[in-house]
Design goal:
By secondary structure, this protein is mostly beta strands. Helix content is 4%, strand content 54%. The chain is flat.
């Protein structure tokens, strides 16, 4: 058991039968009365974010999450299949467990980090950047530089990204998965 004042950003706790990762933590001391702790938490399984306030003396169960590398294999109608790179165990995750942001960057053979609680997979962590091939974009002209502007490009996974004019079809580019923006040519 861990008290509310001992919580830190990044910890995972169990609350009302659900697992929550702590995104933000504020210790609030009022003029009178006891101190309070305001938590911004993300539901590990469902993915939604919630904010709650607790008294400083409340206790929580701290949960240990195991992280392991996994390779994305393929998608079946409702499930996305991954393979643990150490045990070669296949893990199936639903579309809801992955979230919309992950699906648009997934490519077969890609290595990700799977988080588990006990023997059950509860989520996936995407790398900060991914390398994707440009499938379609406007023409490139000699003399265009990185500072001259941008044009839309469709990548191999189907997402659209603004890229500099000098990028052409077939180029491999690095994309930031948090913002969905072009970083550099790979």
């Amino acid at each position: 058991m861990i008290t509310a004042t001992d919580l830190k950003k990044g910890m995972v706790i169990e609350l009302e039968g659900q697992l929550y990762a702590i995104l933000d933590f504020q210790h609030i001391k009022m003029g009178r009365g006891s101190a309070q702790v305001r938590l911004k938490m993300k539901d590990v399984r469902a993915g939604h974010i919630t904010e709650r306030t607790f008294q400083s003396g409340e206790k929580f169960n701290q949960v240990q999450i195991e992280l392991s590398d996994a390779q994305y294999l393929y998608r079946d109608s409702d499930f996305y299949y991954f393979m643990d790179t150490k045990s070669f165990e296949q893990i199936a995750l639903t579309s809801e467990q992955l979230g919309d942001n992950f699906k648009k960057y997934l490519r077969e053979g890609m290595t990700l980090i799977i988080s588990r609680h006990g023997d059950k997979a509860v989520g996936v962590e995407m790398p900060l950047t991914v390398e994707l091939k440009v499938a379609d974009t406007g023409p490139s002209f000699k003399g265009n530089t990185a500072q001259s502007g941008t044009k839309p490009a469709k990548l191999e996974t189907g997402i659209m990204v603004q890229v500099p004019f000098f990028i052409s079809v077939g180029d491999v580019i690095r994309v930031d998965t948090r913002t969905g923006s072009y970083i550099e040519r790979a």
